[in-house]
Amino acid sequence: MKPVNELIKSLADRYGRERSSLLPILQGVVEQEKYLSEYSMVEIARELDLPATEVYGTATFYSFLEYKKMGRYIIRLCKTITCAMKGENQILLTIQEMLKIKLGETTPDGLFSLLHTNCLGFCHKAPAMLINNDVYTELTPEKVREILTGYMNRKEEQEENVN
Amino acid sequence: MSTDYLLKRADFIFKNENDWEEVLTKSIHRTPNELINELISSELKGRGGAGFPTGLKWKVTAEDKSDVKYVICNADEGEPGTFKDREILSKVPFKVLTAIAICGYVIGARQGYIYLRGEYFFLQSELNKAIKEFEFYCRQINFDFSIKIFMGSGAYICGEETALFESMEGKRGEPRNKPPYPTSFGYMGKPTVINNVETLAHTYTIFKYGSKRFYDLGVQFSRGTKLFSVSGDTPKPGIYELELGMSLVDFVEEFGDDDTKAVQVGGASGFLVPRKKFAETTIGYQGRLVGISLPTGGSMMIFNSSRSMFNVLDNYLVFFAEESCGQCTPCRVGCQQLLRGIKAVKRGEKPASYLDKMLKLAETMQLTAKCGLGQSVANSFSSIVENFREEMIY
Description:
The complex is a heterodimer.
Chain A: H1 3-15, H2 22-33, H3 38-48, H4 52-59, E1 73-78, H5 81-85, H6 88-99, E2 112-117, E3 129-131, E4 134-136, H7 141-162
Parallel strand pairs in A: 1-2
Antiparallel strand pairs in A: 1-3, 3-4
Chain B: H1 20-27, H2 32-42, H3 54-63, E1 70-75, H4 84-91, H5 93-107, E2 111-116, H6 124-140, E3 146-151, H7 161-168, E4 192-196, H8 197-209, H9 211-215, E5 218-219, E6 222-223, E7 225-232, E8 238-243, H10 248-255, E9 260-265, E10 271-274, E11 281-283, E12 292-294, E13 299-304, H11 309-323, H12 329-347, H13 354-368, H14 372-387, H15 389-393
Parallel strand pairs in B: 1-2, 1-4, 2-3, 7-13, 11-12
Antiparallel strand pairs in B: 5-6, 7-8, 9-10, 9-13
Helix pairs in contact in B: 1-5, 2-3, 5-6, 5-8, 11-12, 11-14, 12-13, 12-14, 13-14
């Protein structure tokens, strides 16, 4: 049995096997795996006794339930009006230049994915972005470079710990 | 037109009052009818933007005979330019929890939910702590009520109440046909009161101070205070609690940067008001006798003369095209056609008269789309195209 099966089973034990448990289970898998593979979706369907198409249909409706493989840190940069007015494009260019990826792509080391998102609700502190569940606001190119460097160092620390 | 109204600040919602236990205990010792009448006489209307009378919503749900009912706090705050609900939940969570529980007592529900948007995941752990403390107190006073958080996953449409139910039931967040209304057929097909975070916070004020205190604020048809999320070209972006009924002139005087060209009231699904109409526009609910009265969820986005209204509209339409659930044709196809259309006019591929055709399309969407999303695209589209036509063309 793959680890994801264990995960799905424990999520189903925790939230229940009703249809109304589907979203929390999908979210739980994404939290751990960063995305929903076809395999995961089929296994969730099996665990909840639902048609796999229903699981797929539901999962793909929600923009935070990724179904393509994502990096460890998912950057979601807000592109809605106030952020766009307050320099979102410079932030985007800075991130792209620094990570050498375009929107929708993941760095080859699997560390970062870069996405656009709609209004994050930080219009008074625009521009804003999420990295996984953490919010960063009032971004400037300098600030965003610092933030990303912080995440990169986190990775190095983790690797040192493993060694 | 002159107005006798100036901005009146208020401080109810964020006022630090450590008396939620008292407010809860006092309220559940009154009869449900008394509480409903208190709400009705306050004339509180839904603060999410739609403006349905809150007391009436509770009353209709209370009258339903079903054994199982639900209270849901709508914290799927996704309207561009709105950020007040997050602030309420992080600063005064107990007011909201108390209001949810009082609503449960009034309508006969034992379970409440907070539908929290995925973008606000970081609020979850603090909020869960507050819920634990709250439920502990409920048990102490033998009041059987529990509250759970349900997380959204990044879908604007789930702020529409019936789409929110679908989402909680584990489905795609596609709005249902109405009627039946949530008051009789809501979450799991059971009678449900669903209120915006801010609406619930106001009920706390009303139950604490009595309806008169609330009713005395604001103007006719638009009673009480409202939180405004102010952003854009303003020296002081942030959240402000103001009495309803203010004129846009006064608002811009206070929050503008002396170069305000237009204000978007109510977010992308609201209206753009150009400078020449500031004087005749007030912020409140429909029914005022003079001028235009705009209801709002509290999003106030200010644009100065450096902004291109074409870019603003383009940004909104991209938003709608992405967030449309795709269920009904007018909205699914309409949003995309409007977006393509304005670009085509701008590039000169279509004549300026094509804008008139699109205005008709927007009107059709307003009449035929299934839910508020598709119906409200016309608000911003028409108000921008009609007031800034030359910017769409040149």
